[in-house]
Amino acid sequence: MFKKIFLALVIFILLGVVGFIGYLYNSTRFDVEKLIYYNPPLTTQFFDRNGNLVANIFSKENRLYARFDEIPGKLIEALIATEDTSFFEHSGFNIEAIFRALIKDIKAGKKVEGASTITQQLVKMLYLSREKKIQRKLKELFIATKVENTLSKNKILEIYLNQVYLGHGYYGIKTAADGYFHKKLSFLTLKEIAMLIALPKAPSFYDPTKHYNQNIARANIILRRLYSLGWISKDEYEKAVFEKPKVYNTTLTRNKAPYIIDMALKQLIKEYPDIKIAGYKVTLSIDLPTQLIAQESIKWGYKRLKEQYEINNTTLNGAMITLDSKSGDILSAVGGVDYQKSKFNRVVQSQRSIGSAIKPFVYQIALNLGYNPASKIPDISRTYKIPGDTQEDKYWKPKNYEKNTLGFITLRMALVHSRNLATINLASLIGLDTVINGLYRFGFDKIPENMSIVLGSFGLTPLKIAEEYTLFSNYGKKVKPRLILNLENDKKGLYVTYKKKYDDIIPSYQAYLMIDILKDVVKKGTGRNARMKDIQVAGKTGTTNNFRDGWWCGFTPDTTTIVWYGNDDNKPLGDKMSGGRVSAPVFKHFYKQFLKIHPERKRTFYKPKGVKTFIINGKKELFTKDSPPPIKKVYVPIY
Questions:
Q1: Is 531:537 a contact under the CB 8 Å cutoff?
Q2: Beta-bridge partners for 555
Q3: pLDDT-derived band at 19, boundaries 50, 70, 90
Q4: How is the beta sheet containing 619-623 ordered, strand by strand?
Q5: How far apart are the C-alpha atoms of 627 and 621, rounded to whole Å?
Q6: Closest Cα partner for 321 from 562, 549, 553?
Q7: 538-543 and 549-555: which strand pairing?
Q8: Sign of CA dihedral 276, 280, 283, 288
């Protein structure tokens, strides 16, 4: 009777064990699918127009994916020699290694040696906790066996080397190679390979940015293992042992242009919501060396205002953007002095009154209506009645910056010296409605319907002003600023090119009349502080009421640059802090450095067909068929 009960109990226990094992086995049926369709979060990389890395952007895990054919053979050998020498022989687990480790553990009375294969380690990384329970270990064995029966050895190695954590926030071998050594996998030395393979055992302890000597010591052990197996020669071993590679301790994102990256992400995330996790490669329009010069120039201008002019408002800031005038490509954009202190991007988020920077557009409207640069306009005082909500009317009596009047002066002189009264009188002569309609045609929007608009009383962002000024710098064809050149994703089979966009608004010969006038602004007008040797510069200053904003909107024969400084709280910069004094010198500082790295840039403006010259009062002046010489006198054309 007792034997029957005992036998039944044994059978019951065996059935329970078998049932439990069967349950565990069945519970892993979906886990292999996760490996077959392995799709980890991937880092998106942003590059400049010349292939220089600008930033790595990721959500949680910084991972650059490496296909198996990208991974050097020596790296595979180093991994197998270190972690699982019989990898290509076993079917998921190594019975011999398990018993060998068990014997050593028993002799030592503690855990001294592991027996997990690379496949088991991969399973543990992806699915299971590190708790040392029989249940977890059995599931690990079951999943590993299923993985080996489903995936090739090469695929298992590929997934392992992309999943493994290698310290310093780097996931995957390609990420670590790029992060620690700034190298592609194919350019790694044998010693650098060994240093990377040293990391999985204890990523923090062997992190070469923190514990270089510990990492080197373990790397040398790996090299000795490779040599003892005959997988490297004596010469390779001796050369590698004595090598001391340089290790970079850079930030994970390596973001060299944060304002630019913010702009790009804002544009892309609408169409690609997985932009931070799907491993895109984005090529930007910027030129990274130019971007770095721009960032330095904005800081230089900030320091200059603080030290030379003693502007001590804590909200003082600046912004600058440079476009290629023909393509609209954004070559650089800086949204503030210090991104760490303020992530607010003033290039695209800050709409500030533009002041006299609007005047060239008003004068261009007049030129297109038949006015000539030599046409006379009155520079005299005027008072405007502004109907109020109360019984008392208000009055607006604008003044010139110089507090004087000059009577009748030429259109050229009025713009060169930024005469407010002459501009207002010109707008009155051609009609405010005509001015507003002309500005809408140029691409401006939401324009207030009052005369103060001709003095720039409304706000725009530096990005929008840069776009508008290409009307002149691109000879009548206004281009849309372009930040992204192309986007690709190998895993999705995606490649998208962003084409340039432009509007053909006025003839090139009409635009050249304004270019010529704005060259004089730099030669002898309000923009003298932007004047440079060996390159022609044109542009216009912009100063708002009480010196709250200082603009310089300048361009060379093939680039357009907008510079702005002001206080974020909109307080005045200080007496006489005009755009010519505040921002024009920063333009000059930037271009001195820019032309050193880009000497190929054009230096002189070309004169289009249709622009002719006549003599008036003994001086040469330009005219076109749409802007003929003034009709009150007889002029002698020069062809």
A1: yes
A2: 538, 560
A3: very low
A4: 619-623, 612-616, 636-638
A5: 11
A6: 562
A7: antiparallel
A8: positive
Distance of CA 123 to the CA centre of its chain: 37
- Cα 83–Cα 85–Cα 91 angle in degrees, nearest 5: 95
The DSSP string of 524-583 is HSTTGGG--SSS--EEEEEE-GGG-EEEEEEE-SSEEEEEEEEETT-----TT--HHHHT
**For the chain, which domains are there?**
62-241 (1.10.3810.10), 359-454 (3.40.710.10)
Q: Nearest 5°: phi and psi at 439?
A: -65, -40
Residue 198's contacts (CB-CB under 8 Å, 6 or more residues apart) are 82, 206, 215, 218, 219, 221, 222
Residues 93, 119: Cα–Cα separation, whole Å: 8
Q: How far apart are CA 627 and CA 629, in angstroms?
A: 7
Position with higher pLDDT, 115 vs 329: 329
Kindly state the tokens that stand for 585. Answer: 């010198």
What is the CB neighbour count within 10 angstroms for residue 296?
14
Could you tell me the CA-to-CA distances from 290 to 346, 448, 480, 639 in Å, in that order? 19, 37, 20, 41
State pLDDT tens for residues 253-288: 999 999 999 999 999 999 999 999 999 999 999 999
Please report the pLDDT score of residue 137 as a whole number.
66
Tokens of 570: 């909109």
- Measured in whole angstroms, the distance separating CA 13 from the mean position of its chain's CA atoms is 65
Task: Report pLDDT for 393.
Answer: 64
Q: Which of 225, 247, 276, 229 lies closest to 61, judged by CA?
A: 276
Does the pLDDT at position 489 exceed 90? yes
Work out the average pLDDT over 200-214. 96
Distance CA 149, CA 143 (A): 10
CA distance 483 to 333: 10
pLDDT of residue 115: 57
Tell me the C-alpha to C-alpha distance, in Å, between residue 286 and each of 85, 276, 339, 638: 48, 20, 18, 43
Whether the predicted model's global pTM rises above the 0.70 cut: yes
The count of C-alpha atoms lying within 13 angstroms of the C-alpha of 212, restricted to the half-sphere facing its C-beta, is: 10
Provide the pLDDT confidence category of residue 5 given band limits of 50, 70 and 90.
low
What interhelical angle do 73-83 and 212-228 show, nearest 10? 90
**How far apart are the C-alpha atoms of 613 and 636, rounded to whole Å?**
9
**Per the structure block, which two tokens stand in for 296?**
């330095």
Instruction: Tokens for 269, please give them.
Output: 């995330």
Query: How would you classify the pairing of strands 376-379 and 407-410?
Result: antiparallel
Q: How far apart are CA 322 and CA 163, in angstroms?
A: 41
If phi > 0 it is left, if psi is from -120 to 50 it is alpha, else beta; for residue 53 that is beta
Look up residue 453 and give its DSSP letter.
G
The model's pLDDT over 303-317, given as tens digits with 9 standing for 90+, comes to: 999 999 999 999 999
Sign of the C-alpha dihedral computed for residues 325, 326, 331 and 333 taken in this order: positive
CB under 8 Å to 637, separation ≥6 — which residues? Answer: 612, 613, 614, 623, 629
